[in-house]
Design goal:
This protein is mainly alpha-helical. The chain folds into three domains: 19-50 and 93-218, no CATH class; 229-345, no CATH class; 356-476, no CATH class. The protein has 16 helices and four strands. The strands form two sheets. It has a two-stranded antiparallel ribbon with strand order 1-2.
């Protein structure tokens, strides 16, 4: 009988570090031609160009004012998120940091240029997300005020969108591997996503200038869920470091996927849930992503013709190990109670597999019982005196048959109690057929030590029938 401890005990050289999610790094997607062109020309525009500008002074006065303006803009860019905060020697924990999004960016002074924001984002400075949002709002205000051609509005919007492409890559890169990020950086990434969700809701209620392309809702929270789904697929599809001996390929795959899902979700509950805002539903999101990929793999596997062992293992995982030892494990049961992940396979597919298992198991039990009867018949035809136990002839046949049937029933009950009840009735029918077959067989001769006598097989099988009817196993059937 397979036990859960057998499935989840680690293999040599394949022990995972408890509480660690080794999220795989996925290759970056190639940038489109339009994005590349936007970034190439990004340095040609600045935030001042997004609003109608007054007459610019000329000569040295113009140059001095521009330098002062640029310096002041950079100073404001780096001071937006540090006001009122003192630098501490110890790195703060993420749970102590504010991750609530601001209703609108409150910026003092002129904004940095597009080129400066691009450089800051390329260096991973997520705090400039608020300046990017301010640029977007300035552009909307300029479009609403008029005085700017449609071509110029579209051109300036492309610069802002190119900044958002960089910002999105940085934010999702952090959230793909949240345990590898510094606490403050993870806090910033979460705050940016939350702010973008607020902006999506704000923008949905107002009209957009005809010249501007509709860019909201951006749905960054939905994009993050897509990243989690990619991570789940990478984790579950990873090949085990070593292949255990004595296990089939399907069994090794079930073991790897089940253990990976359980360990990863425990890490999400223990380490990520306290850090993520409630709107992310981080436990539900990871659980649904892992469940979906696990179920997709098993559904594809169930379409193939499986051997008897793999059919049993598939049912064992779907009906027993997955719901009981993973979803209802001590660390996950309460967290997943309201998620409602459901079964890994649809009910119709489960019924087909159960019927296949019952047929395979009944056939196997019949073959084993027939083999046991054949071996016992061979011993009787050798004219060798049978074993004597307490003055009576003794045969192991009844015990062998009871063990064969009991093992078949135990396997079925490991799947579900209902499958155990179904196989119980089927095996009783097969046992009765075996007894009738043996009772009608020809007489055999046993050679005793003192004298020989003839005993027909009907009498011997009456003893077996009596033994079976009085055995403790019979009451369980």
């Amino acid at each position: 009988m397979l036990k859960m401890v057998t499935f989840f005990q680690g293999f040599p050289g394949q022990q995972s570090v408890p509480g660690t999610l080794n999220f795989a790094v996925s290759p970056q997607k190639p940038r489109s031609t339009s994005e590349a062109e936007s970034e190439t020309s990004m340095s040609e525009a600045s935030s001042e160009d997004l609003m109608p500008s007054p007459e610019a002074p000329d000569g040295e006065e113009e140059s001095a004012k521009k330098k002062e303006k640029k310096s002041k803009g950079l100073a404001n860019m780096f001071s937006v998120f540090t006001k009122g905060k003192k630098k501490k020697k110890d790195q703060p924990r993420l749970s102590d940091l504010e991750v609530q999004p601001k209703p609108r960016p409150e910026l003092d002074g002129p904004l940095p240029t597009v080129e400066e924001l691009k450089e800051a984002l390329e260096h991973g400075r997520l705090e400039v997300a608020w300046q990017v949002l301010a640029l977007e709002r300035q552009l909307e205000a300029a479009a609403a005020a008029g005085g700017m051609s449609n071509e110029e509005l579209v051109w300036r919007q492309s610069k802002v969108e190119a900044l958002y492409v960089l910002l999105c890559d940085q934010v999702l890169g952090v959230l793909r591997r949240p345990l590898e990020a510094a606490p403050e950086r993870l806090s910033q990434a979460l705050a940016v996503v939350s702010q973008e969700e607020l902006e999506d809701r704000r923008a949905s209620g107002g009209p957009l200038a005809a010249a501007l392309e509709a860019t909201r809702p951006r749905r960054w929270l939905q994009r993050w869920r897509g990243v989690v789904a990619e991570v789940a697929a990478e984790r579950l599809d990873a090949q085990p470091a070593t292949a255990p001996e004595g296990r089939s390929e399907a069994e090794s795959r079930f073991l790897h996927m089940g253990r990976t899902m359980k360990e990863d979700l425990e890490v999400v509950v223990e380490r990520l849930k306290p850090l993520f805002p409630d709107e992310f539903n981080v436990v539900r999101t990871y659980a649904e992503s892992y469940h979906y990929h696990f179920a997709s793999h098993l559904c594809a596997l169930a379409q193939f013709e499986l051997c008897e062992r793999d059919t049993y293992l598939l049912l064992l995982w779907v009906q027993n190990l997955y719901p009981n030892d993973i979803l209802n494990s001590p660390k996950l049961a309460q967290e997943l109670q309201g998620v409602g992940l459901g079964s890994l396979l649809p009910p119709k597919q489960i019924r087909l597999l159960e019927a296949m298992f019952l047929s395979n198991e009944v056939t196997s039990v019949k073959q084993l019982m027939a083999r046991a009867l054949e071996l016992e018949s061979q011993r009787w035809t050798q004219d060798v005196a049978p074993q004597s136990l307490d003055g009576h002839c003794h045969s192991e046949l009844a015990i062998d048959i009871l063990q064969i049937i009991s093992q078949g029933q135990t396997k079925a009950e490991n799947i579900t109690s209902d499958v155990g009840m179904q196989i119980k009735q089927l095996l009783l029918v097969e046992l009765a057929a075996l007894l009738r077959s043996a009772a009608s067989s020809a007489p055999v001769r046993i050679q005793g030590t003192a004298a020989s006598s003839r005993v027909d097989s009907t009498g011997s099988w009456h003893l077996l029938t009596s033994f079976v009817s009085k055995a403790p196993w019979q009451s369980s059937l």
